Amino acid sequence: MKKYLREEIKNLNAYEVINRDYRVKLDANEGVDWIGGLNRYPVDRSDKLREALAEKLDKSPDELVLGNGSSELIELMMKAYLEAGETVVSFSPSFSMYKIFTIIHKGKYEDYPLDGMERLNVDGFIDFVKEKKAKLVILGNPNNPTGTLIPREDILKIVRSVDAMVILDEAYIEFSNYPKGDDTREFENLVVLRTFSKARGLAGIRLGYMIANKETIGYINRVKSPYNVNVLTQEMGLKALENDSITSNNIEIIKRERERMKMFLEEKELKPLSSGANFLFFKAPKNIFDALWDKDILIRKFGGELEDYYRLTIGTPEENDIVIEAIEEVENARS
């Protein structure tokens, strides 16, 4: 949306790469081939992958931009829209990189506390955004680290009410029962971020994508580095799209295991929050973390205001059984 665009970007032209058939290619200073064509730069905007993804999402390819994970896309939004000293607003607790990226890009970061770490007071949040005169608003949904969801009607109320670009980070959305689709055609100030890292199980290839209206995507392409998604990642992304049944099956396993682990943690009075993601957020005595650590079982530990809170990724049934056994041992030793 041009209204919020940085002044320097308004007259900036995107780096253009000519993609066409050739007999001899000597225009990009590439090296001599020695391993299957990898001397060539990748297709700049991942055309084949972007077109396949657009078809899955019932979108035009011009409504998508691909990135080196969602993290790059968050930074591209800041490159395009955030002037030095302007404000980014999110809620707390949330993904720590939102604040880090804001500081890197010379912005001011403000967060609004969730009630009981899981409920967003939507009207209070809207007033907070207006008070801080935010340029960007970032909403993790489901939220990391709590796993909680903001209802769609509340998301849309925020988008309608604030004078800012709204980044809806849906990295974990496939693990929820949230309505499919997005509202980027209706709202010019909304962008949606998703990833291949979580539900598709491909964190190692670093692939994320942004959905937005064509105008916004055009602005993002102005600030995007050329060739930002490598050849191997593009190929693996296409392979993933061809194997949706594997992804769907894995999601259902995670959902079942999430409920099993939630019930177990509740039985142990560790009070996990309800989660729409592939993890559970709970409070526990430090000796539980220490016992898991001593058995080489890694869960996420937090500090500061989140001291004594932990995040457990939902693993395979076998991995979850190992966690259950380790926690049972701690409980039995204490009794």
TrEMBL record:
Cofactors named for this entry: pyridoxal 5'-phosphate
Positions carrying N6-(pyridoxal phosphate)lysine: 198
Coiled-coil segments on the chain, per record: none
PROSITE patterns for this protein: AA_TRANSFER_CLASS_2
Limits of the Aminotransferase class I/classII large domain: 35-327
Lineage: superkingdom: Bacteria
Enzyme Commission no: 2.6.1.9
Top-rank EC class of the record's enzyme: transferase
Similarity comment text for this entry: Belongs to the class-II pyridoxal-phosphate-dependent aminotransferase family. Histidinol-phosphate aminotransferase subfamily.
Assembly information from the UniProt record: Homodimer.
Name of the featured protein: Histidinol-phosphate aminotransferase
Source species: Tissierella creatinophila DSM 6911
